[in-house]
Specification:
Elements: H1 2-19, H2 23-42, H3 53-70, E1 72-79, E2 83-91, E3 96-105, E4 108-111, E5 114-117, E6 121-122, E7 128-139, E8 144-153, E9 159-170, E10 174-178, E11 200-204
Antiparallel strand pairs: 1-2, 1-11, 2-3, 3-6, 3-7, 4-5, 7-8, 8-9, 9-10, 10-11
Length: 211
């Protein structure tokens, strides 16, 4: 009887643990699946060769130099007259990316012949927490360093990040990158002049939005 009770308790604990699985576990499984696929291909040869040895070597050098510096939490905040944006990114050493985004806008409307600003509103499907993966690599096509960011909203079906950003640099205080995902962060709102070539700088450290 004692053995049965212990078995039931063990089964309950296992079931409870499984019920706690979330987006983080799914992301880890995805990485594990990719690694298994790579190992499977490599096992076909006792002395595997990289398709592009130079790209592999430069990627390894990039990861060794900046990988440890990227690990940690970074944040960015931009507040304008009609748009305010906050984002926090956490890069983990196992390639997991988690984050928080808060993004609001308000419009300029005409009421009784006078222009006035509406109240702040969250942009639909652009707010919340997300989880995914990150990776540093060197790309031969453009000869540049890249930081891939892929993540989905934890409470929705939409993509929060799908960006192979150009990686600029990272140190103890600042992370610099650029890409199409950052077009909405133009200092001059709605001027149409912001380019994907503009650098965006995140600051290291935990933070909360000021709005």
């Amino acid at each position: 009887m004692r053995m049965i009770n212990l078995w039931r308790k063990s089964r309950f604990s296992e079931s409870h643990a499984n019920s706690l699985a979330n987006g983080r576990a799914k992301a880890i499984y995805a990485i594990a699946f990719t690694m298994l696929a790579v190992f499977s291909l490599a096992s076909c040869s006792s002395d595997p060769e990289w398709t592009d040895p130079e790209a592999h070597e430069k990627t390894m050098q990039l990861q060794e130099q900046y990988g440890p510096l990227l690990v940690g939490t970074w944040h960015l905040e931009r507040i304008g007259e009609r748009q305010r944006f906050f984002e926090r990114l956490t890069f983990e050493s196992d390639g997991i990316l988690t984050g928080l985004r808060k993004w609001q806008k308000r419009n300029l409307v005409t009421v009784d012949g006078k222009e006035t600003l509406t109240d702040w509103e969250d942009i639909p499907e652009k707010n919340g927490t997300f989880i995914g993966t990150w990776k540093l690599y060197w790309e031969r096509n453009d000869g540049m360093n890249h930081l891939s960011l892929y993540a989905g909203w934890q409470d929705g079906e939409y993509t929060a990040f799908s960006e192979d950003a150009i990686f600029g640099s990272a140190d103890t205080e600042t992370l610099r990158m650029r890409g199409y995902s950052f077009l909405h962060l133009s200092p001059e709102e709605d001027d149409g002049e912001h380019q994907s070539s503009d650098w965006i700088s995140y600051r290291r450290g935990e933070a909360e939005p000021d709005f």
